[in-house]
Amino acid sequence: MRVRQAFYDQARFCDQLGSPFTALLCRVLADGLDGSSQIERDILEWPGDPSAFADSVPLRVAGALHDLVRAGRAGELAPLYPPHPMPNAAALLAAARGLLAQHSGFVREFLQFPPQTNEVGRSAALIAGWLEIASRTGLPLSLFEIGSSAGLNLIADRYAYRFGDVPWAPAEDSLPGSGQSFAGLTLRCGWKGRGPALDATLRVQSRRGCDRHPLHLADPAQRERLMAYVWADQPERLERLGAAIRAMLADPVSVETSDAADWIEAVVCPRAEPGVARVVFHSIVWSYLGRPAQERIAEHLARIGGASSAERPLAWLRLELAGKDEPAALRLTMWPGGAEELLARAHPHGAWIRWQDEGGGE
Ligand SMILES: C[S@@+](CC[C@H](N)C(=O)[O-])C[C@H]1O[C@@H](n2cnc3c(N)ncnc32)[C@H](O)[C@@H]1O
């Protein structure tokens, strides 16, 4: 019952986030899995919490099926998947159940992994925040990201953007190699409100990230898994993820394996280089950490921030879901000072950004 409900809930989220195909897939699986094969029983009798706020079983199943489709191993299911037209529900259910049974060993192993998304679209909001910090401090940035996944938002300054009608492109000398490899990725997002500080000079002096389960993009299987978790009817997201992966492979940044609170306490330390702004940032990570870790991170940053100065400032930038059915919120706390500001509201995949007024009001 809990698993069926998780599929129905996921279907609703997919509808809201523009994936009618995945919504249909989740609904037919919710209605039609009956436990007549061992793999269906494994899914329906999932031992933990199957919901989107815990194990996200529907996303695991959708990811496994999409992986098989992408690998050309999906037989009768393949012609029912995008870019083909929306399929008949009964045909989709029959083909999906057949494939789950046929590849039960692969699916069982795939289901063990927590779904990993590294949504490059969030780079638009994050880089707007970096530009704001660069503009206010006039300093190069030293970046520290928690919950980096594969680290694709850690290299947000290698992508080009279109904020509404306004373009932003990385400085040639900030790109590894010729810079040509990045030409393919321009992130477009709708923009409302005061513009971001696009004329600020953005210099990234260093970048580090951590994740409890980082994805290593040099491994083709992990790359494919990351692609498979993107919903099959969202070709733009697939395209930009592929382009971002290529940008990362051209000059890799390795993501450290660590728990976020342990890592922050270890790497954000009282001694800091003068003339550099340290920026701790994260996107769609906070709710996974749990209250004790959240408090440890907030207390540590307040302590280090309390000892900061104009030559050694500290910024805490986060793009996190504000509440059920609300857009994400981009918040910034800067020390010295330590006041928290709401910089913007944003679509959780970066489709639009609504920058707040000067006073931080809604
Ligand atoms: C929803 S994903 C977001 C990934 C990335 N920040 C983005 O916006 O695309 C959440 C990430 O947080 C990581 N995570 C969850 N709990 C963590 C913890 N305690 N310490 C470090 N990373 C954690 C997960 O492994 C996952 O990669």
Descriptive account of the structure:
With 362 residues, the chain is an alpha/beta fold. It has two domains: 2-111, no CATH class; 120-355, no CATH class. Helices cover 38% and strands 18% of the residues. It has helices spanning 2-16, 20-32, 38-44, 57-70, 89-102, 104-111, 123-137, 220-228, 235-250, 260-267, 286-289, 291-306; strands at 141-146, 160-163, 166-168, 186-192, 204-211, 255-257, 277-283, 314-321, 328-335, 339-346, 352-355. Strands 3-2-4-11-10-9-8-7-1-5-6 form an eleven-stranded mixed β-sheet, sandwiched between helices. Helix 1 (2-16) packs antiparallel against helix 2 (20-32), helix 2 (20-32) crosses helix 5 and helix 4 packs across helix 8. The chain starts with a helix and ends in a 7-residue tail after the last strand. The model has no long low-confidence stretch (mean pLDDT 93). The structure holds S-adenosylmethionine (SAM). S-adenosylmethionine binds next to strand 5 and helix 11.
Topology:
Layout: H1 2-16, H2 20-32, H3 38-44, H4 57-70, H5 89-102, H6 104-111, H7 123-137, E1 141-146, E2 160-163, E3 166-168, E4 186-192, E5 204-211, H8 220-228, H9 235-250, E6 255-257, H10 260-267, E7 277-283, H11 286-289, H12 291-306, E8 314-321, E9 328-335, E10 339-346, E11 352-355
Parallel strand pairs: 1-5, 1-7, 2-4, 4-11, 5-6, 7-8
Antiparallel strand pairs: 2-3, 8-9, 9-10, 10-11
Helix pairs in contact: 1-2, 2-5, 4-6, 4-8, 10-12
The protein binds S-adenosylmethionine.
